[in-house]
Amino acid sequence: MAEIRLAKLAHSYGNGTNALKPLDMTWRDGGTYALLGPSGCGKSTMLNIISGLLKPSEGRVLFDGQDVTDKDTGARNIAQVFQVPVIYRSMTVGENLAFPLVCRRVPTPRIKARVEAIAERLGLSRHLNSRAVALTADQKQLISLGRGLVREDVSAVLLDEPLTVIDPQMKFELRKILKDINREFRLTMVLVTHDQNEALTFADTVVVMNHGEVIQAGTPQELFERPATTHVGTFIGSPAMNFLPAVREGDRVLVPGAGLSRTAPADLPTTDLTLAFRPEHAVAGGPLAGTVTRIWFEGADQVLALSVGDASLRIRAVAGAETVGAIVRFDVPQDCLRLYHQGRLVA
Amino acid sequence: MKTLYLALKYLAIALWSAFVVFPFLWALTTSFKSANGVTGGATWIPWVQYEPSLQGWQSLFGGVGGINVVKPFYNSLVVTLSASVISITLGTLAAYALSRFTFRFLWMRNSDITFFFISQRIMPPIVLAIPFFLMLRSLGLLDSLPGLILVYVALLMPIAVWVMVDFFNGVPRGLDEMAWMDGCNPIITFWRVILPNALPGLVVAGMFCIIFGWNDFFFAFTLTFTETQLLPVAIVSLNSSVTPWWSLSAAALVSIAPLVVLAFVVERFLSKGGLAGAVR
Fold this sequence. Notes:
The complex is a heterodimer of chains A (347) and B (280).
Chain A: E1 4-12, E2 18-27, E3 32-36, H1 43-51, E4 58-63, E5 66-67, H2 73-76, E6 78-81, H3 93-103, H4 108-122, H5 137-149, E7 156-160, H6 168-185, E8 189-193, H7 196-202, E9 205-210, E10 213-218, H8 220-225, H9 230-235, E11 242-249, E12 252-255, E13 260-263, E14 273-277, E15 283-298, E16 301-308, E17 311-318, E18 327-331, E19 338-341, E20 344-345
Parallel strand pairs in A: 3-8, 3-9, 6-7, 7-8
Antiparallel strand pairs in A: 1-2, 1-4, 4-5, 9-10, 11-12, 11-14, 12-13, 14-19, 15-16, 15-18, 16-17, 19-20
Helix pairs in contact in A: 3-4, 3-5, 4-5
Chain B: H1 2-31, H2 55-59, H3 70-100, H4 110-119, H5 126-139, H6 145-170, H7 173-181, H8 186-197, H9 199-215, H10 218-222, H11 231-237, H12 245-271
Helix pairs in contact in B: 1-12, 3-6, 3-9, 3-11, 4-6, 6-9, 7-8, 9-12, 11-12
């Protein structure tokens, strides 16, 4: 278990594309982190740099203050679970779990004890002597994870979209196991995903990335309440945050024709302004009114798409009798209205 | 409809089997015939249509008008197996390197180097006859088993490289990375993780090497004189102005016997699912 520090880390591939723009970041020992972003945003590159499969073009990687940038993968003592289950097909489940310890020349009795303990924890005990290929995809992912856990001193467990190929009903179960393992073993765990639900439910800290850049790192709550950019607001939350073009009039910023407004900070520029709020933050009744253009039912809730003046927005409301074409009245509390200038959070 | 389909299927299989088995049957009956038995049209039933004779088989073991094929058979076995084992070993290592690491030699990249190996088998063998002859002569290895093994390694290794590169490319790179992460060095990664996954490839490459090595006549003929004789050359030397069909048939059966055994072994391996799911 280790604290991982990325110091001025950057990477570009041979063809000159900036896969990772310079960044500084510290992941504390025993924390759970999620790297969230669309495909090609640099999150897997970052993971491969940490595990040592890729050497960064710039910057250093430090484990517990020790520079490991030039160390190879084996010496870093990292465990990684890949998107597609990677198992040693010629070996049994038990041999798979034992392999990292065999490679590290751990005494046989110790290996046996560790393998049995981890298999027990992951629910693989009765499969120990089965061929690993015969197991289901989620069990194979558990084997991958188990190969990391058998090493008591593993620095961190990196999870590169490990749930992508797992059946939906097993996903929840596997996520729970990961979370429990983190609590029990106090491991530093980093999950790479493009699924916001996965990221928000798994990690203490979510790192949102786009175009090789870290846009925002914070708790799920922070990302939801105060997205640092319009990109984060769109990427996190379902439905996405409402972003409405706004103008400044005196000491207020308002959305023309919609009646939505808030006070403007003193040094606010006058152009490129956006007012935003979460569909969840709209409350029923109030001074604002919109025409329902579409309704999605989501169990106890429903999402209403409204046309308010020239703007279209969505609000989440308790399922009721609204119909398309009806006028709905609502309000947005002032403390829930966010202001963006050139796509970045101002207030 | 289903019955008709089955009937047609078995008919097709029966026809094909007959087509394949017939030459063996022909060789088998002929090998037990005498000079009288092979004249006057095809005959199949011993004692009824022709009088069986062991003359053909006896001629393979030093009988009248024959030669002893035991020594050439043993030579062929030694040369083929040695050359195949060496080719597979070197070829597999080369193929793994070509599949996993990036090489540059002048303008050539990995794919060019792989093609270079294969290209050795594209040119007609006769092009290589004189260089091989001169090389073996300068090494003092003409007409010797080590000399033949050396030449056969050069001939068989491209096949091994070609087959194995393809198999290694099919083994996910993630497996190597996983093994590194588990603390393996590259040699253990290759030996314990990648090679077991490429086992079907080894079987296929081995089969090709043994077949090509065992059947080669050209180099066995051009690079030997009297001391070292391989089976294909020995069989040809059985021929004379009056073709001894009985001896040649017996010799043909002896020469294909190892390959038939090999085919059965490989078939069992394949039917046990050795090839199924070679990669995930």
